[in-house]
Amino acid sequence: MSTMYLCLPYIRKADILMRISNIQDMQTIEELRQYAQELENEVRLLRTVMNTLPDFVYAKDLSSEFIVANESIAKSMGISGPESAIGKSDFDFYPQELAQKYYEDEQKFLKSGKQSLTLEQDRLDTVTGEKGTILTSKMIFRDEDGEVAGLIGIGRDITELKRAQEALKEQLELNQSQREVLEELSTPIIPITDHIIVMPLIGAIDTARARNIMRSLLAGITQHNAKVIILDITGVPLVDTGVADHLNRTIQAARLKGSETIVTGISDAVAETIVDLGIDWSNLDTVHDLQSGLKIALRRLRDRLSDE
Q1: How many domains does the chain have?
Q2: Taking the model in full, what pTM does it have?
Q3: In angstroms, rounded to a whole number, what is the distance separating the alpha carbons of residues 196 and 274?
């Protein structure tokens, strides 16, 4: 039996000793031979399963030396086969710093009293030099007396998964940056003269965008010390009660900051819609085009400055 699988006798040792002690009661030695054959078949199956797995499968004793290893981890460590790992430790295969980290993690786990542990660890392929990440699950195994005898580890290479996660994170951050730029472009503030700013609005206005419009406008009032604001809605395709309510809230917020608001871009269709919906803009200066709005804004500003 290969020394690779020294953990198996912990399971079968007592059974084997019992059968040997009772060998005189057996009708023939054939029964023991058959039992040994069954055990060998079981070991061969276990070896096949372990070496078929792409995951790193291993077991270590209390000194963190290998007592079991499979083909995957042997290949990663750059050795000829699993047998070459037996009796050795990570210090024989990995750089000092990485091996020390593995050793400290394992010794901490062995002394923790925990039965299992899952953690992410750095990985190094000693053949290619490629670095990555493995997700490792460690489990305690015990001897016949119930004492901790070592650990069993199963490591899965998640390097590609981590890279995909990082790429997704970067894409989400890029999308957020693009969204912020689009929000700024969708709510531009254009200073016309000292104390007069224009906010041209283009496209549909929903609740989220209306909130951005208000924030951008209030920030523009503060930045440019605006006394008069022109909200140009020429590019807004639809004015309904929702849009009107959003604009009213924005105008009220601007008034609280000490600024007057003029709404421009009132087309015939928009005017009819406002009347049909019963929207009251009688207390606002509303004009057909931006040019007319600028004339009113300059007059209002002149009046305010003369009063001051």
Answers
A1: 2
A2: 0.51
A3: 26
